[in-house]
Design goal:
Blueprint: H1 3-12, E1 20-28, E2 31-40, E3 46-52, E4 60-64, E5 68-73, E6 85-91, E7 96-101, H2 106-120, H3 128-147
Antiparallel strand pairs: 1-2, 2-3, 4-5, 5-6, 6-7
């Protein structure tokens, strides 16, 4: 489950793997059940990530910057439970704006997007180059968890 926050961090930081990562995790047998990571990107961007299959279910994406913050509830599978997804923008001055998006089936959306790519020649939403950056970062996080040391992808 750690791939979800990893891919969000890479995407939001400009689409490149981080300069350095650190990760620790909890294993049960040969299964990593919880992971806690940090990734440092160019220009001082830092992502903190946590994921687990043993903790109480909670999902969210928080992006905090100098001018405000963005909070996304259920970013990985919006609408799966039939409820709309909300994105909250909070400014440094405390003003808040909420955008709500209707529920959609994320799996149906994936199939329809793949169909458009295959049948209509549409470009994928996530290009192969971005998938490679996700993988570089994920492998570095795994290596860091294995060694207990920071890793440069």
């Amino acid at each position: 489950v750690g791939v979800y926050p990893n891919s969000a961090a890479v995407t939001l930081a400009g689409g490149m793997a981080p300069e350095e990562v650190y990760c620790s995790w909890v294993e049960e047998g040969e299964v990593d059940t919880s992971c806690f990571g940090q990734a440092r990107f160019p220009d001082g961007v830092v992502a903190q990530m946590a994921a687990g299959i043993r903790s109480p279910f909670r999902v969210g994406l928080h992006v905090v910057g100098d001018l405000g913050a963005v909070f996304v509830d259920r970013p990985w599978k919006p609408g799966l439970d039939g409820r709309p997804t909300a994105i909250r923008l909070l400014t440094h001055q405390g003003r808040e704006k909420v955008y709500e998006f209707p529920a959609v089936s994320p799996y149906q959306a994936e199939v329809e997007t793949m169909e458009r790519c295959i049948l209509d020649g549409e470009q994928p939403l996530v290009p192969l180059s971005l998938s490679r950056e996700f993988l570089k970062s994920a492998l570095a996080l795994r290596e860091s968890a294995r060694t207990g040391e920071p890793v440069r992808p």
